[in-house]
Amino acid sequence: MNQTVDALSQRAGQRRFPLIALVLLVPMAIINLVAFVLPVLRLGQISFMESRSGGVLTGNYSTESYIGFLTDRFSLDLIGNSLFLSLSVTFITLCCAYPIALFLHRVSPRWRNVLFVVTVSPLLVSSVVRTYGWMVILGEQGFVNGLLMSSGLISSPLRLVNNWMGVTIGLVEVLIPYMALSLIAGFGRLDVNLEEAAASLGANAWTRFRRVVFPLTLPGVALGCLLCFVLSISSFITPKLLGGGRVFLLATEIYDQAVIQLEWPKAAATSVIVLVIFGLALAFYSRVVRRFE
Amino acid sequence: MIGKITIPFRILVLCIYLFLLGPMLIVLPLSFSNDSYLTFPPQSWGVRWYTAMFGHQKLMEAFQISLGIASTVTVLGLAAGLPAAYAIRRYSFPGRDAAMSLFTAPLLLPSIVLGLAILLVFVQARLLGTFTGLVAAHLIVTTPYVIRIMTTAFSTLPPSVEEAATMLGASPFTVFRRITLPLLMPGFVASAALSFLISFDEVVISLFITGPRMTTLPVEIFDYVESRTDPMTASISVCLIAATLLIIFIIERTLGLSKTIGK
């Protein structure tokens, strides 16, 4: 269908004068140039600039920001922290979103539409609001501690926020809708007849899931994992608020370097390193996907 | 039995949904707390923090600024994105695919990196802490969605439909009013609503480029949450969630959210 439409529009387009097309593209191109192309080029340029202490640019070019970053123990820990957090968050998010996607695939169409809206609607609620909600639930005098204390299970409040635990919980919740959407998009190949065939050949529920259901949904799983990995490695609001200044990641470091220390070349170099990790994740994803096909 | 939904599966899914919606549900009871600090369950009840919220001058100013920015971004984003989407779908020219990739590329860049990059350019152009700067920065985040949605909308509207109407004697204006516009309406409304919500909620890029005189509502809330924890943020959250729900409800009733976003 789409190919026919493309062919049709292409044929119609050939009869028209492309100068109009250029005029129509100009406003969008200006926005893109001013707020995307120029900033990205400038980011790359500044990452190779020299700065004196206090962030004053000397005007000379050097690779000191990169060398400084890659030889500093604390900076290397940041990469390790970010990778570990993103991988664990991605895995937990997959475990939480998979049942939702499977449920939506099997439930009746009427319920599916309602639950689909419920699943994506958190995406439209500000991440600051959702993170604040977690502070209420996990805080020292929050919901969970209040419940456990009044039931007499614990005598002093558990530390659930301002640490890695809080950041992990918050990020998983923020990312579930993205993962669920990717999974649902990839569940099209799942056919109940295949499961019935496997059952008739004597496979039990676990074997059916492991050998039939899960392999068929792998493309969706790969897409969801890529999306959640890149979103969590660049997440800032949730680690900043739920980490309480005790969780140090690449994204929080970029912000601190740029806004608090005003060390722009360092912040730019850290950003470029994040982009390199992005590129590597994308390359890994393409390799994995090619293996499915 | 195969492919059926068992009771334990139902319970598991219910728990995950509670986890997913928990942070948004918990703020409702807390917003009616009369305590000075964040305690749950609240010791006393009342509307103290709603009153405080409406009396908080800086917050109300930021709210008005955010409304202004989001409306401007929605209008300008559609004004720039719609012609671009039309050109990409209806004309063939060299670099058409490159234009499409370039216009949707900002979605791929993490907002923390994009925010820093925009800061570095805007500080030279003296656009930091200005309305123009914030609008330009938000446009780069919302227009990829407009382009995506509208190119899809244009491709489900083959030129032959318009050509048929013209052949039957309709004037170009009538064709636009009776054929093009109604068929584009779902995509148009979805782009507008999404642009507005994304701009209104945008916080990471805004954090880099807002100044003391010009700050948006999410940045103001972020600063507030970072410096103190009292139930006022819960009251603000309830109002924001209610507004979002209203918009979702209207779109769902008129167009069907799963149709507009899912396709």
From TrEMBL, chain A:
Query: Among the entry's GO cellular component annotations, what is one?
Result: plasma membrane
- Record key words, sorted: Cell membrane, Membrane, Transmembrane, Transmembrane helix, Transport
Any keyword Secreted? no
The record's listing under Pfam families reads: BPD_transp_1 (PF00528)
TM regions (residue ranges):
19-41, 83-102, 114-137, 164-187, 212-237, 267-285
Primary localization = membrane
Q: Which residues form the ABC transmembrane type-1 domain?
A: 79-285
The membrane topology of this protein is: Multi-pass membrane protein
InterPro entries per the record? MetI-like, MetI-like_sf
Source domain of life is Bacteria
- The answer, when asked if Repressor is one of the entry's keywords, is no
- Family, per entry: Belongs to the binding-protein-dependent transport system permease family. CysTW subfamily.
- What protein name is recorded for this chain? Putative spermidine/putrescine transport system permease protein
Q: What is the lineage of its organism?
A: Bacteria, Pseudomonadati, Pseudomonadota, Alphaproteobacteria, Hyphomicrobiales
UniProtKB/TrEMBL annotation, chain B:
GO cellular component terms, alphabetically, are:
plasma membrane
Where's the ABC transmembrane type-1 domain?
Answer: 63-251
Q: Check the record and name the CDD domains matching this protein.
A: TM_PBP2
Q: Which domain of life is it from?
A: Bacteria
Membrane spanning stretches: 12-32, 63-88, 100-122, 128-147, 187-211, 231-251
User: Which controlled-vocabulary keywords does the entry list?
Assistant: Cell inner membrane, Cell membrane, Membrane, Transmembrane, Transmembrane helix, Transport
Where does it mainly reside? membrane
Query: Which InterPro entries does this UniProt record tie to the protein?
Result: MetI-like, MetI-like_sf
Q: How is it placed in the membrane, per its record?
A: Multi-pass membrane protein
State its location(s). Cell inner membrane; Cell membrane
Q: Which GO terms describe its biological process?
A: transmembrane transport
| A Pfam cross-reference name | BPD_transp_1
Q: Which family does it belong to?
A: Belongs to the binding-protein-dependent transport system permease family.
Q: PANTHER family, per this entry?
A: INNER MEMBRANE ABC TRANSPORTER PERMEASE PROTEIN YDCV (PTHR43357)
Protein's name according to its UniProt entry: Putative spermidine/putrescine transport system permease protein
Q: From which source organism is this entry? A: Allorhizobium borbori
Organism lineage reads as: Bacteria, Pseudomonadati, Pseudomonadota, Alphaproteobacteria, Hyphomicrobiales
